[in-house]
Amino acid sequence: MEPLFYLFSGFRWQDALDILLNSYVLFRLYVLFRGTNVIRALLTICVLWVAGQAAVSLGLIITNWAMQGIITVAALVIIIVFRNEISSVFQTKDLKSFLWGIPRHQFHTPLNIIADSVWALAQKKIGALIVLPLKQGLASVVQGGISLDGKLSQELLVSAFWPDNPIHDGAIVIQGDRIISAGVILPLSKRKDLPSFFGTRHRAASGLTELTDALVIVVSEERGKVTLFKENQVYDIRNRLALEKLLQDHAGDDSTKKGVRHQTIELITAGLISLFCITGIWLSFSRGMETLATHEIPVEFINPDQKMEIISSSASNIKLLISGAKPLINAIKPEQINIKLNLSQSVVGVNKLSVTKANILLPPGIRLKKIEPSELDITLDTLIKKELPIQPNWMGKLPMGVVMKEAKAIPKTVRVIGGSLALKDISTIFTKQISLDNLTESGTATVDLVLNPASLKLENKNKIQIHYLISKKPVL
After folding, report:
1. Around Cβ 157, how many Cβ atoms within 10 Å?
2. What's the domain range around 389?
3. What digits encode the pLDDT tens for the residues 210-230?
């Protein structure tokens, strides 16, 4: 649990938003490209990236370098080879389908209408080529065709293959209950084991099923026979019921509750995998770019007793060693870090206070490594008032021939506020130094008092007047 706690220590709400947003983007890419060759190529790149990261952790420098090169080349190959599939996805007109819609493959497909139409075409010996794509897309393997997006009906399906119709030689693609395109050209099979009586339609059907998971129905124009192609399987259809049963077996699962449940499980799994992958990338970046920094932060004392004051502290600043992602470390300002020590339980005299993580406030995503010093000696004292006499602090010597007869301070005493410990041994308060060197006659000097220690305060002004009386020495 401790390593896991360390990995997610300093986790911010911004990190959660970052992970969720990118996880959704990855999930949407899966939804848009699922069933296509693009998604399989992207999965291959992901495997290569994981292998590269493993190589880094094992210290395999050349292997990691090779993986990076392969990934770069593979990304360019995907863009070039699968440009048609990528283009078809990003040309989506419906914003809902692009951002949050979930396409339902062959949901609610009226298989009875397809069976009736195919059997009607077979009885009239009208050639037909009908494609039902399942999970994999067709954009990268088919060519030509015109977009119809018409409601599936027996009349429309039969009329599309009528001999006088200019699109009757191509294939029709059915998605759900819609005919999405007609006159589509399919890739021809290169298999050598197909029967000799199979014509171009049969070879085109076999060619498509070799490249995708689509189901293709062929009606022979010469023989009036119905053939169904699925992957490497070829099914000769004897009657209409057999055709509908095969359609139900291969293309009907997704129109049932079982198919809906299967797709829901698939999408939930894809979402969880996306979340796991993005979280792994976040951990890789946040820990891989981790750096150290040192900051000296002043200590703030809170909840002091109003009757006491701080006389001294063993340190006024605390040195903190912190770590985190390099961008976060570089963005830290000193005012974003606070150290607060609670004095509510302190007593008069010396108090030893420990500085812990609980006393330190750090920005999100930053971790504390070291505290120096980790303990402070704080001296507290009770505030009292004491009346002290003022003593002028003379320095130097009077000029020759003069003598100071009297010197007095106005006022004679001052009231000093300070800690009882500090004032205990103080009986007199001195002024700042007053030079005697240039005093030749009586006068008044305005001086400041010296407060030692500096924590002492005067109740009134600290400007004091010193009246001094100077006279000449009598001549003997």
Report:
1. 23
2. 382-472
3. 888 788 999 988 888 899 998
